[in-house]
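COURSE: Structural Biology Practicum
ASSIGNMENT: Worksheet 4, Part C
STUDENT ID: 0417
INSTRUCTIONS: Below are two proteins. For each, the amino acid sequence is given first, followed by its structure token string. Answer the questions at the end about the second protein only.

PROTEIN I
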Amino acid sequence: MSIPRTNWAGSITFRAARTHRPSTVEQLRELVAAGAQVRALGSGHSFSTIADTTGDLISLDGLPRTVRIDPGRLGAAGQPSVTVDAAIRYGDLAARLDQAGYALHNLASLPHIAVAGACATGTHGSGDSNGSLATAVSAIELVTADGELVTLNRANGEFSAEFGGMVVALGALGIVTSVTLDIVPAFTVRQWVYQDLPRRQLDANFAEIFASAYSVSVFTDWRPPYAARVWLKQRTDAADNAEPPPRWLDARLAEVPLHPVPGMPASHTTQQLGVPGPWHERLPHFRPEYTPSSGDELQSEYLVPREHAVEALAALNPLADRIASVLRIAEIRTVAADDLWLSMAYQRDSAAFHFTWRKDTTAVLPVLAAMEERLAPFGARPHWGKLFVLEPPALRTLYPRLPDFEDLLARYDPAGVFRNDFIDRRVIGR
């Protein structure tokens, strides 16, 4: 299998001088120890240059895909755990967990993404009470700059005090080889979609809408009359698991399956219309056996404090025409606060504004700059794996633990083996 030279969407071309696809951790350790500049490539679903390098690009796709469930190993939250090789995709992991009677607390929209890369960038699903995917991480095994294999643990050991800086680490501390995740008993979910939710109802009832199900997503194209679609994913064991009314907040219950992006086939999406099914076949929007869209796109995402979500949306209203002119679809979700230093939801419950753009970087970047200016009063934090134009001085005000993270880099990778242009120029500002 050849190593991809671009990201999934074809919007980033990797500049690596050399590419590698080790099949064992020992081979990986040798490559890292011999390299002057190294970056890891997972599933390639980032839209920023976070995985790019001019040195050695190491694909994790050749490594094993083992799943080791330990019902007796209790994490900090009191649940059993699973240890997985870093290259495994969430879709594959979820199916194997469900067969064993377990689940992850949440999943992202795409089941196609790799566990290690998703956690390293703070990628998330949705739900007022659901933290990002990285909040499930209780231990990490990684290869450090000298080729050593080190285990980092959340609960104990010499790294526990700094663990919050080592999970969402942007690939800058080492190459992750395995991850241990907290798991919960398997559960089932029903999914409904409401159409034509008026914008005035979204603004007036934002908290009610996002508290109405285990996981909620609102999609809009930012075109007048700004009506939205609402994806409701409800656990069947929830206390309020009632049949949905045909009308809700002036929106109407969909009678046929829909795709979040208008014009795309609903056959690519997970089962709707309230049909109950396993958690991993409902929480993502898309089925793992299908490409979720054409890939001909760019993506950006900004997280603001949840209590300011409606104000932040209003701040973008003057840009509606500019946004709509280059937009495929926008999605609004909620994420619970965490204590991971570089997480977009660090110490604040958040609302996430996600934008899927047409693949026209020249047209999109000025719109991002205008959006970031209008969202600045709300402390909007950009997703590390998506496109943004914010510079390091602004990022430093948004991520209060960024100086502590720089200290970690200086101590655990003083030669900058795992740094690249994205880390040096966009994050640290060197």
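PROTEIN II
(use this one for the questions)
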Amino acid sequence: MLVANTVGTGIQPEPQVMLTSGEPADDLNRALLKLFDDWRFRPEVTWQHEYYASQRLVARSWLRDGECFGNRITGKVPGLDHGTIVPYSLELLEADFVPMDLNDRTRSITQGIEVSAWGKPRAYHCYKGHPGDSLAVATDTKRVPAETMMHIAFRKRLHQLRGISVFATVLNRLDDIKEIDECERVAAKVAAAMSGYIKKGQPEMYEAPATDGEPREMTFDAGMIFDDLQPGEDIGTIDSKRPNNALIPFRDSQLRSGAAGVGASFSSISKNYNGSYSSQRQELVEHFQLYQMLAAPVVYNFCQPVWDGFVDAAVMSGAVEIDGRIDRTTLYDATHTGPSMPWVDPEKEINAQILAMKWGFRSRSRIIRDRGDNPDQVNREILRDTQERDRLGIELIGDGPPAPEPAQEPPKQNARIRAA
């Protein structure tokens, strides 16, 4: 659920390169997006994940393990086929690739990260293969400069180099919830399989069975009658009181605490959407801010560095040309659009957006970006649809003149006059 609300279907870049005259460089922005559409299908060295799937994997590793690494590779590299027009690839690395126990005071290495005297990372020492592959690979490391390495980490303290899992504070609680569910499931399964026992009575009433030591067998059928009980014996049943009616409220309270510990929405995790529109809206708004806080490190520490490297590779390879009209200070500017806040009541939400745009509180482009779309692409699609409708003579209800606003009644005068 955290991955779905922080990355979702993908955090899409929208270049914002400007001309020296202050106008958008539309031709260059569209050329970059066209090259990006070719690159995003093979963004990483293994060719197994497209760019938006890579974002989800990076976010999942970051939230689960506390951190994730990524090396940006540009240009010709022996044995590496980029497979795209822009010679640029990503080498995504899980936290295990940077050894936590690698410490060397002489080289200023702490937990696998080489830092300066001020604590700024200068390089990362990574295994050449996964440490679980073989001992020979696990002990062999390579030095990756910090200029090409991306490190997204979940930090809770100053001067902290490595990250911690977002679930660190609730792992015990989640493990207990899982154990309770397992025990209750087994108990309900036992209760569903009807069981019984034979009560022998007092010891002095017991008589040795005449079975020659063989176990007694009784067929358990619906509506059966026991007519072969020994003197002093009685039939009893085991009632486990399952399913437990008090389990759901207790489990929901524990799950609510666990959801609060990681900043997730309880309704989304438990799939319990009971409540009024106001309560659902309040929960959605509060947790959407938390999701945006979690999405910010993904944008700043992964998406924007990836875009910077992509632009550098596109320019250096000659895939795009930069002339004197381009404001080079805006060459790397881009807007990254992630998941939008879903609508609880679409009619109320869209009317609120219309009012905000009408009174100048929000721009149309910002509203489109908040919905996860590219304003330039939406405008071109609207223009193309309008031209196609005019050519075919299609008329829509919304194409006509706006309906006149209803006349407002004059305010009623108050008949009571207060004394001065």
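ANSWER KEY EXCERPT:
Q1: The first strand starts at residue 12 and ends at 15.
Q2: The longest helix spans residues 277-316.
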